[in-house]
Amino acid sequence: MPARPWRRFSGLFSLVVLGAIVLVGLLAPVLYPAGPWPNVGDPLIAPFTSRLVPLGTDTLGRDVAAELVHGARVSLIIGIVATAAALLIGVTIGAIAGYARGWVDDVLMRFTELFQAVPSFILLIVLVVLLGPSIVTIIIGIAVVSWPPVARLVRGEFLSLSNREFVQSCLLIGVSPARIVFLEILPNCAAPIIVTGSIMVASAILLEAGLSFLGLGDPNVISWGAMVATGRPLLRSATWLSVIPGLAILLTVLAINLFGEALTEALGARRRA
After folding, report:
1. Rounded distance, CA 143 to CA 65, Å?
2. I need a labelling partner for 88 at 20 to 30 A (CA). Which of 32, 78, 223, 233 fits?
3. Mean pLDDT of the chain
């Protein structure tokens, strides 16, 4: 299959999957208003054996479908909010470093390298343990470990665009640095930032799942990672407890990555035009 039709198909597939996941997450309180916590039947009912619980029940008799739907809501909130916070930090630092240059650039880049010197997941675990496991602290932790690549990307774009004719013209007519940064340079490097942000959402979902799998997630909410961790001791006897949320994570991350690739090609073609 040619590359372009494949990109279009993958982009359409990713949009359909992501749209369905977002819709399910938004409708979670409507689909299961009682939440994922109530016991609805006997423990460990296998999937597709009961109309009341189509995806079965867990070890406490809770509906796996309700947990999956509410887990989608939690995972999406953490992924989107953490990515937005990381982009805000990274774009700000990268823009200042790339535009100011000189010693300001050196200081900010050394500060960025300080965060990159420690493995991101290890740093995330330390932050969550110190701050206490909750949705807010997980979002803060993911944002803290995710912004350095964005800062480097934006810095590189600013270093390249600062020498363009339209920026030099603005300097000659006395346009303020703030207007140049926010109205001239930043819109021209929005495409790679948007693409990077879409992929960061997938990374944030995986990081949250990893934390929950290790028992460092928010104990007051159900997430896909926590569901996988709950089913881990019963992989042989109740495989569905881990497989179902694991497939949800896989499908979501795959759809986001395919969407990012399609977006890269679309924005790249527009920039070349």
Report:
1. 29
2. 223
3. 88
Query: What average pLDDT does range 121-140 have in this prediction?
Result: 92
CATH number given to 3-272: 1.10.3720.10
Other Cβ atoms closer than 10 A to 7: 18
Report the distance separating Cα 3 and Cα 242, nearest Å: 35
> How many Cα atoms are found within 13 Å in the side-chain-facing hemisphere of 201?
23
Enumerate long-range contacts of 188-194, CB under 8 Å, 24 or more apart. 188/157, 188/161, 189/154, 189/157, 189/158, 189/161, 191/267, 191/268, 191/270, 191/271, 192/153, 192/157, 192/267, 193/87, 193/91, 193/150, 193/153, 193/154, 194/263, 194/267
Which residue in 154, 138, 137 sits closest to 89, CA to CA?
154
Asked if 248 contacts 229 with a C-beta cutoff of 8 angstroms, the reply is no
Extract the runs of DSSP E, i.e. beta strands, from 102-247. Answer: none
- Give the count of alpha carbons within 13 A of 204, CB side only: 31
Q: Which helix (H) or strand (E) holds 217?
A: none
Helix (H/G/I), strand (E/B), else coil: 58: coil
The Cα 263–Cα 141 span in angstroms is 27
Check: CB of residue 227 under 8 Å from CB of residue 245. yes
Structure token digits, residue 226: 């926590």
**Residue 177 — pLDDT band, cuts 50, 70, 90?**
confident
For the chain, give every domain's residue range.
3-272
Q: Which two tokens stand for residue 228?
A: 């996988």
DSSP state of 49: S
What's the pTM value of the predicted model, to 2 decimals? 0.89
